[in-house]
Write a structure and sequence with these properties.
Order of helices and strands: EEEHEHEEEHEHEHEHHEEEHHH
Number of strands: 13
Radius of gyration: 19 Å
Strand order of the largest sheet: 5-4-1-8-9-10-11-12-13
Number of helices: 10
Helix content: 25-40%
Strand content: 15-25%
Oligomer: single chain
Low-confidence stretches: none
Structural class: alpha/beta
């Protein structure tokens, strides 16, 4: 069973924004233990960060986007070189601080994974305003703006809310993937789509959400009060739920061998947005998101999904729908 492909004359433009990107360094060691030199295996370095990962996956799936990201210092130069080597189209906003690094270590003896996420450089007022201005200039009516990842120190909590406000003013659709005060402020402004985890959703509504039913109800509350038109509630290995004013749709993750979940959420969002930009309906975009997130979990360390895996899993999910 195959799904009809929609080929609009021109896919809707997609802009991604990453204000606190990171060089993702991944490696492995036999056992993680204190006060010892831990001899590691081969290492891998990728240009990471929410919005940039979205752009990287969109590119892998045959789409295009404009990636706006803040970088600085020696790590920033290495970061830009990696993106250019990947063929990512973007606008680098120079900053005085050095782009951070994140470290992922797989413990071979147990299969556990350890992630060390650094804070990132301080952004001055002029620097974060330039990030906002560049994003505004790249927005187009009917396009998508994906603001994803943590804010850098020195940035106001309402930064993503300002992005959402600018998107509404021009008629673009803002998608936010963040947490804490930055996410709460964006939802007070109102966005097109938000992708919270169960924990983040509980923080937004101010109460514990012990089961799927309570989480779906909380997602409906966000939609009802105009915080988001679409809530894509991610459930980790249990899949995801898509909630709108008209419907609630749940999809489970196809059975695969999981190697690393780093970047799976970004991949989910990237494929979902790309399919919407290509003119697919929300159900088809949701299947693509599940497929891309699952395909990324199949890869090692910080590697992202591969197009053939995503398309195969999309077809599998469509066939399972009956």
């Amino acid at each position: 069973m195959t799904e009809p492909v929609v080929h609009p004359a021109q896919p809707a433009p997609v802009v991604t924004l990453t204000v606190n990107p990171a060089l993702d360094v991944s490696t492995s060691t036999e056992r993680v233990e204190p006060e010892h030199k831990l001899r590691c295996g081969p290492s891998r370095t990728d240009a990471g960060g929410g919005g940039v990962n979205v752009s990287r996956v969109i590119h892998r799936l045959g789409g295009q986007s404009i990636a706006i990201y803040a970088v600085g210092g020696p790590t920033g130069r290495a970061y830009r070189q990696l993106l250019e080597a990947d063929g990512i189209i973007g606008r680098a906003i120079p900053i005085d601080g050095s782009t951070r690094e994140n470290v992922t270590v797989d413990e071979l003896s147990t299969g556990r994974q350890f992630r060390f996420v650094l804070q990132g450089p301080h952004l001055t007022t002029d620097e974060w305003i330039e990030c906002l201005t560049a994003t505004q200039r790249a927005m187009t009516p009917g396009g998508y703006v994906v603001a994803s990842g943590s804010l850098s120190p020195g940035m106001p909590d309402d930064f993503y809310a300002r992005v959402a406000r600018a998107a509404k003013a021009i008629g673009a659709r803002c998608i936010v993937d963040a947490s804490g005060p930055a996410l709460a402020a964006a939802l007070r402004e109102g966005v097109h789509l938000v992708k919270p985890s169960g924990r983040e959703l509980g923080e937004l509504v101010g109460r514990a959400l012990p089961d799927l039913e309570s989480r779906v109800e909380a997602a409906r509350e966000l939609v009802a009060r105009g915080a988001a038109e679409v809530v894509a509630l991610t459930l980790g290995g249990d899949g995801a739920v898509l909630v709108t004013a008209e419907s609630v749709t749940r999809l489970e993750v196809p059975p695969v061998e999981v190697h690393s979940t780093v970047g799976a959420g970004d991949s989910f969002l990237a494929a979902l947005v790309l399919r919407l930009a290509q003119g697919r309906d929300l159900d088809a975009a949701f299947r693509a998101g599940i497929a891309a997130g699952t395909a990324t979990a199949m890869t090692e360390a910080t590697e992202l999904c591969h197009r053939d895996d995503v398309e195969r899993l999309e077809a599998q999910l469509l066939a399972a729908r009956g």
